[in-house]
């Protein structure tokens, strides 16, 4: 049994999309599926489930992590929590995009600012997707459409 939907999105992805830090904290605290949802009933114990490394870094079918989703939906509180919880803010999805590139493509200015302030110093130009785009180029290309009021 999978804890994700048909796109591979987990509760952590949906919480990141909604900028819901409380749910992300609850997911991190649980660090695993309840025993009755375990894929392997033979290894069930009476204690809490073992920690899962991917609880806040699980990947959707397209390779997006909760950090990618938070960036795409301009969710700075979720990004802040994920960063403090140790999530990789420079993970790449299947198209080679980092959360910063997702934020730039989506014109998610708050997420882009957070990622610029908390990511690699040169990530705006060094991180490129499979098409060769970087976050800086996407910002420049899209600037004429952005409202900066």
Description:
The chain is mainly α and 149 residues long. It has one domain (11-145): Serine Threonine Protein Phosphatase 5, Tetratricopeptide repeat (Alpha Horseshoe). Helices cover 42% and strands 0% of the residues. It is built from 8 helices and no strands. The protein has helices at 11-17, 21-30, 66-72, 76-84, 99-106, 109-118, 123-126, 135-142. The N and C termini lie far apart (47 Å).
Q: Indicate the CATH topology.
A: Serine Threonine Protein Phosphatase 5, Tetratricopeptide repeat
Could you state the CATH homologous superfamily? Answer: Ankyrin repeat-containing domain
Strand content: under 5%
Helix content: 40-55%
Please supply descriptive tags for the structure shown above.
149 residues, Serine Threonine Protein Phosphatase 5, Tetratricopeptide repeat, mainly alpha, 8 helices, single chain
Topology diagram in text:
Elements: H1 11-17, H2 21-30, H3 66-72, H4 76-84, H5 99-106, H6 109-118, H7 123-126, H8 135-142
Helix pairs in contact: 1-2, 1-3, 3-4, 3-5, 4-6, 5-6, 5-8
């Amino acid at each position: 049994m999978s804890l994700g939907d048909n796109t591979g999105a987990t509760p952590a992805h949906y919480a990141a999309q909604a900028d819901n830090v409380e749910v992300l904290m609850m997911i991190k605290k649980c660090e695993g599926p309840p025993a009755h949802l375990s894929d392997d009933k033979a290894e069930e114990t009476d204690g809490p489930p073992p920690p899962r490394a991917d609880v806040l870094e699980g990947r959707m079918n397209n390779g997006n992590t909760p950090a990618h989703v938070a960036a795409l939906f301009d969710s700075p509180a979720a990004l802040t929590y994920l960063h403090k919880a140790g999530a990789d803010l420079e993970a790449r999805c299947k198209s080679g995009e980092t959360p910063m590139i997702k934020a730039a493509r989506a014109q998610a200015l708050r997420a882009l600012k957070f990622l610029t302030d908390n990511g690699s110093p040169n990530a705006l130009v060094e991180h490129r997707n499979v098409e060769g785009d970087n976050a800086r180029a996407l910002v420049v290309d899209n600037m004429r459409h952005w409202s900066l009021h």
